[in-house]
Specification:
34% strand; 229 residues; alpha/beta; elongated
């Protein structure tokens, strides 16, 4: 995983209801971490081998699955574990889960099941990475073959044993002072705009890689080609 910190911070793990590959994913719960299930993402918790600390959402997907009784039972036994949201709201269920994590003091977020099924939800979840950054946090979208993160006015480093391809995109009209070191295709103090995908499909070459953006925000997609970190 690309990180710009030496010691991993306590993490809010968020399980959404998109596509997942349980055989390729591992939720590394450590002391101080919490797990938040978003709506029907609750039903992914058991295959992941984790117990949620909070279940949040408008529960429309749960009701569509016809399994509302499971949530009702939890509400009876541990009402503080479930937060039911209105179906008419500005925040998506995932964004509400992120805000709940911030309210509990978390600044590092890992989202599982945040891709696939519905393109609009996928885009919304990617936008949530921008929200996390703008609130002073760090977010990752985890997939069995992909890791997505974003940086703002910052540098991120990838270990020398990183594999697959790395693509970067401007999150915003333009990102200035973009530099790429230690990869097949290098860049020095460039401007990356949102209408020209110049940063797609770079390759790791067995060296520590470094991505910098001096002014602006970059979306980074590490396609690990089947190899998990």
């Amino acid at each position: 995983m690309g990180e710009n910190i030496l010691k991993r911070e306590k993490t809010c793990h968020i399980i959404c209801h998109g596509d997942v590959s349980f055989y390729d994913l591992n939720i590394d719960l450590q002391d101080g971490d919490i797990c938040v299930a978003v709506d029907a993402g609750f039903y992914y918790c058991e295959p992941f081998g984790v117990d949620p600390d909070l279940i949040i959402g408008d529960m429309d997907s749960v009701k569509e699955k016809g399994e509302w009784s499971d949530i009702e039972e939890i509400m009876e036994e541990n009402p503080e574990m479930v937060e039911i949201l209105s179906t008419e709201k500005d925040d998506t269920d995932t964004l509400a889960a992120i805000k709940a994590g911030f309210a509990r003091g978390y600044r590092r977020f890992c989202l599982f099941g945040a891709l696939g099924k519905r393109l609009d939800h996928t885009i919304a979840n990617i936008q949530c990475l921008s929200y996390i950054l703008n609130q002073g946090g760090k977010g990752y979208i985890m997939d069995g073959k992909m890791e997505i993160t974003a940086i703002k006015n910052d540098t991120i480093r990838y270990a020398a044993d990183s594999q697959g391809t790395l693509s970067l995109f401007a999150l915003g009209e333009r990102a200035e002072g973009v530099s790429i070191k230690g990869m097949k295709y290098l860049l020095e103090d460039a401007v990356v705009t949102n209408d020209f995908p110049i940063g797609i499909s770079n390759e790791f070459i067995g060296e520590e890689a470094e991505i910098t953006v001096r002014n602006g925000m970059l979306l980074l997609i590490n396609d690990m080609c089947g190899d998990w970190w």
